[in-house]
Amino acid sequence: MRIGIIGATGWLGSALGAGLLSRGIVQPGDLALLNRSGPRPDYHGHADVVWARDVADLVAQSDVIVVSVRPEDWPELALRAEGRLILSLMAGVNARELARCGGRIVRVMPNAAAEIGASYSPFWSAEGVTDTDRDTVRHLLSAIGTTDELSSEAEIDLMTALPGSGAAYPALMAVAMAGFMRAQGVADAIAWRAAEAAVVGGARLLERRITEAPALVAAYRDYRGTTAAGLEAAEAAGFSRAVVAALEAATEKARRMAEGPA
Ligand SMILES: NC(=O)C1=CN([C@@H]2O[C@H](COP(=O)(O)OP(=O)(O)OC[C@H]3O[C@@H](n4cnc5c(N)ncnc54)[C@H](OP(=O)(O)O)[C@@H]3O)[C@@H](O)[C@H]2O)C=CC1
Ligand SMILES: O=C(O)[C@@H]1CCC=N1
Q1: ipTM for the complex?
Q2: Where are the domains of the chain?
Q3: DSSP-derived pairing of the beta strands 104-108 and 123-125
Q4: Which of 10, 55, 158, 217 gives the lowest tally of CB atoms within 10 Å of its CB?
């Protein structure tokens, strides 16, 4: 099967291309690529990938087309892709708009952890998508991590806020934590390592047992030690409210983008 990626050198398109090639899901000669800035002599160690001349050329050389341009760049693509399976990675471009290209539409919401094969990339299939298409989607997404099929397109906007945000909130937390340490006079490198211990070490402890998070919070509270004091102060300062506000704002932005200009 020939795969085309529009936006193949971008943050996500490049991660997907790398994953597809390194896992042998697609052979270099069956991978058609397009970007704005032009072909690269080497694409993740492969010189023999196919660089399309333009959108029409990419469509002609692909059975499945991944659209990984920024949402604002979608209209200028003027994609015509009758009979093709389309995987849109774009936030805030709805299936009705995408269907104008004439293909069978699947919307996917990956995240930046695609770079390390650890993206959770839920997808939603519009009308006309077949079970064979779904198998194809799952196979392709296995190149960057795991997936689930969603039952409604509205859930894509929620998934755009989370998990689409990737490392954004952990990074924000790390910045605040390291900032506190530095403000207390701790050396820069040690301040960052302390933040890393909490953000990365803590995340590793929760890996594959995230549903135990409430019990873990309760265990720290019941311990009645220093962390319990910290958790109480965090909640009093609005920690959970801040997280919810962030997800609400991101979801709302995705919805407004999908509705188009007022
Ligand atoms: N980044 C993320 O964490 C996430 C992003 N998304 C979605 O994924 C999509 C891609 O995002 P991201 O990878 O971050 O974006 P980038 O800006 O990193 O990459 C965009 C890519 O699109 C290419 N491009 C732009 N315009 C055209 C055009 N007219 N024809 C061909 N190629 C074009 C660019 O080419 P060139 O490099 O030559 O300029 C580049 O390769 C977005 O729609 C975003 O909403 C979804 C979830 C998470
Ligand atoms: O911040 C963004 O717009 C991209 C799209 C979804 C998640 N990240």
Answers
A1: 0.99
A2: 3-159, 168-258
A3: antiparallel
A4: 217
**2 closest CA partner among 36, 34, 25, 23:** 25
Give the HSE-up count for residue 52: Cα atoms under 13 Å, Cβ half-sphere. 25
Residue 152 is given by DSSP the state: -
The architecture of the domain spanning 3-159 is 3-Layer(aba) Sandwich (3.40)
C-alpha span between 28 and 20 (Å, rounded): 9
- For a substitution probing ligand 1, which of 12, 58, 106 has the most ligand atoms within 8 Å of its CB? 12
DSSP 8-state assignment for residue 52: P
State how far the Cα of 85 lies from the Cα of 87, in Å rounded to an integer: 7
Residue among 126, 169, 127, 119 nearest 147 (CA): 119
How confident is the model over 208-242, as pLDDT tens digits? Answer: 999 999 999 999 999 999 999 999 999 999 999 99
Distance of alpha carbon 259 from alpha carbon 249, whole angstroms: 15
Give yes or no for residue 93 CB within 6 A of ligand 1: no
Res. 201: pLDDT tops 90: yes
Q: Note the pLDDT tens digit of each residue in 150-161.
A: 999 999 999 999
Does the C-beta of 91 come closer than 6 Å to ligand 2?
A: yes
**C-alpha to C-alpha distance for 157 and 164, rounded to whole angstroms:** 9
Are 234 and 69 a contacting pair, CB within 8 Å? Answer: no
Q: Which fold has domain 168-258?
A: ProC C-terminal domain-like fold (1.10.3730)
pLDDT digits (tens, 9 = 90+) for 26-51: 999 999 999 999 999 999 999 999 99
